[in-house]
Amino acid sequence: MSPFAPNYELRSPNNLREALDMLADAAGDPRPFAGGTDLMVLLESGDLPEGTYVSLWGLEELSGIRVAPDAVELGALTTYTEVLEDPTIGAEFPLLCAAARETGGVATQNRGTLGGNIANASPAADSPPAFLVYDAELELISAAGTRRVPYDRFHTGYKQMDMRRGEIIKSIRLQRGRGAWRQTFRKVGPRRAQAISKISFAAAADMDGVVVRDLRIALVSVAPTVVRCVHAEAAVRGLRLDRGGLDAARLAISRDISPIDDMRSTADYRMRVAQNLLIQFLSELTS
Prior knowledge:
Layout: E1 8-11, H1 16-24, E2 31-33, H2 39-45, E3 51-55, E4 65-67, E5 71-75, H3 80-85, H4 87-92, H5 94-101, H6 106-111, H7 114-120, H8 128-133, E6 137-142, E7 145-150, E8 155-157, E9 160-161, E10 168-175, E11 182-188, E12 199-208, E13 211-220, E14 227-228, H9 230-236, H10 243-253, H11 267-284
Parallel strand pairs: 1-3, 2-3
Antiparallel strand pairs: 4-5, 5-10, 6-7, 6-10, 8-9, 11-12, 12-13, 13-14
Helix pairs in contact: 9-10, 10-11
């Protein structure tokens, strides 16, 4: 069904303070609108909820990539193209760059934002696995003030987030210092480009010879939210990557994920691919 335009209102604030005041207004239950790459799809299909939207696009306070000695802070309006063009992100956070390359086409990469990708809360989104692997921290802001939330605690269920009324994501903070870790990102879909993932896998490991000193593993499209695979990590952390360690990791990851059958794939396929991607990554660490 085609949308009826007069049933929508898009407000354009001049700055962040105005935007937060608009979002705090109880009348009309206003919603934020960033790059719009997801919301416009819903609009065209007639599935976008009617009401008031507040445009965040172009707000300076939500934009830009700031590099400090200990961390990188990405404004919520940072686009995938900006990620791909930033030398520090490319050198130290390659998983995020890999996810950005896999996100839609050039038009989507130019307009889509990291904050919007997180807040859309799709269990098949591209950037969340990288953020989990990098132990990202979100800064949330509203008219009432700001607070920080570790990203691994942000998604609480399908399309559910630790986000209060009137809050938006202001920035994403990534700790530096893992540039030497071995890292990989794999997206499995029905075609090579512009596809929603059947499963995506991101991982990073800190190695001491053939012993895993530390590692992070994250997956999407295998649970109601993006998943950090803590059981698989614990199964091999501090151990040599021999056959016994690989078998333990394969078994442990089945405790981390709960894939389902849907229109894009089956639970059995997703489980097998998740296990195979994990074993391939771990096997490559000693090669």
